[in-house]
Each structure stands twice: as C-alpha cells, then as structure tokens.
Amino acid sequence: MKHLENDSFTEFILLGLLQYNPTHFCIFVLITMMFLFTLTGNSLLILLILVDCHLHTSMYFFLWQLSLIDILFTLTSVPKMMTNYLLHKEVISTSDCGFQIFLGLALGGTECILLGLMSYDRYVAICKPLHYPLLMNWPLCRQMAVSSWTSGIFNALIHTVCTMRLPFCGSREINHFYCELPVVLHLSCEDTLTYETGILISTTILLLIPFSVILASYTLILVTVIQMSSAEGRKKAFSTCSSHLTVVSLYYGAIIFMYMRPISSHTSGQDKVASVFYTILTPMLNPMIYSLRNKDVMRALEKILCKCLLYFKM
Description:
Elements lengths: L1 H6 L3 E4 L7 H30 L6 H30 L3 E3 H34 L4 H4 L2 H27 L8 E2 L6 H5 L7 H34 L4 H29 L8 H25 L2 H19 L1
Parallel strand pairs: 1-3
Antiparallel strand pairs: 1-2
Helix pairs in contact: 2-3, 2-10, 3-4, 3-10, 4-6, 4-8, 6-8, 8-9, 9-10
Keywords: Cell membrane, G-protein coupled receptor, Membrane, Olfaction, Receptor, Sensory transduction, Transducer, Transmembrane, Transmembrane helix
Subcellular location: Cell membrane
GO molecular function: G protein-coupled receptor activity; olfactory receptor activity
C-alpha cells in the first residue's frame, strides 16, 4: 500500500539554492544580473554572427551554436529558481522535473561535444591552415553540429526515461535548485548500482573523450605557437588559449565532479556549487571570452552600432 501511495505522487519539493536572509538576497540579485548578462551577451553574439557575412566561417558557426546552448541551458534552471525564491514556492511537478532533467542532459552533452569540435577547428586553422578549407568545409561542419545535438538528445532521452520510471520512496524533497539526474536518482528506493554504471559509461563517452580532444588540440596548438617567430603573435596566442582552457576546465571539471562520482557520495552543498559553475557561471563567461577578445566580433559590433546611430539620426 505504501509503495502505491508513493507512486501516486505527482510533485517534488525543490529546496532551492538560497535562504531568506539579507546575504542570500544579495546573492539572488547577483545571480539575476548574471542571468540577464548571459541572455544579453549570448543573444548579441548570435545576432552579430548571423548578420555579419565576415563571421560566416566554421569557427563562428560553432560559436553561435554554443551561445544558443548557453541561453537554453540557463533558461532551463535559473528562471524556475528565481520564481520559486520570489514566490516562496518549492513545488515542481514530476513532468516538469523530468523535462528539466532531459534539457539539462541534452544541452550539457551537446555542449561537451561542441567544445571538442571547436578545439579541433582551432587546431586545424592554426596548425594546418592550408588544409583548413578542405578539412572544415560547410557540409562537414553542419554534420558535426547535427551529430553533437543528436548525441546529446539521444543520451538525455534514455537517461530521463530510465530515471523517471524508478520508484521513489519516502521524502520527495530535492535539496537542489533544479531537477538534476544524480540528485533525483538519490531519492530512488531501488538499487541503482547497475544504472549508475550506465551513467558512468555514457559520461565517459560524452565528457572524457571530447575533453581529451580539447587537451590534445590545445597542446598541439601551443607547440605550433612556441615555434612562431613573432613574439607578439606568441603572446596573443598564449593569452587566447589560456582563457579558453580556463573556461573549458571550469565547465568540464564541474560536470565531471557531478556525474562521475557514486550517487552515495553526493552532498547537497557540493552539488549546488558544482551546478552553479555550468548552469550560471560559464554561460556568462563564454560570450566574454570568445567575443570581447575577438577583433572580428568587435568590428562587427562597431558596424551594427554605427548603423543604429545613423538610423536614429535620420
């Protein structure tokens, strides 16, 4: 009877990220500002890439895909968290919870693969410039993008269906600010060891393989850069590579920490901090790292601003 009663539940309780005190309210304001900056920065970057013909290259094609993922990733969790905090609401339906799990896994997996493709694109452009038009042609780039989205969605669909079909016993409280696979899995009253092994395998494929490609690509890039005769060129390349690797390391490090540990070893405090890195922090940093330091993007922005000024003067 108790099992049937638990199966009839249609809601989870999200305990959230913040408490109702002055310090956490300041953090809430900070998160709100970061959220707005993420939406503005990534949307502007997408607009510039689509409008300016000089940015119609494979690198910027992958970049606007990354910006789109960052927007959707942030929208998956942050608005719900902000709404719950303002309305003092903690309830989320099981269907909405499953949808959050699906979107988080799909977008996260797609971004992992996409970051690997972007690093390979930079490797070819810097280390094999004469072969670049052949190796990174438009049909191949489109196939790469479609493959990354398909892989992420397929992996997310499998894990979401398997997770939401598990029996949940006792408390339905999720000590997190959104429904995330390891946290929800922790509530199951069924032995999930076999399923956790499946998660580890898929995580290895979607995380460690692209991360290995990133490390190998940037290692080869740095070797090529060291051999440059221009000291200014070396300095610029080192600065660019270090900033890219810093953001990528934050993103991959947090996800690996979240998804490659046994479910039993998870604690709510650590999980929340790790999730903030890849749902709030890196989506905000990506447009700054990939655009503000990029002369082509800044030139496109200047063109747009000049056109707007001329339009308003008329």
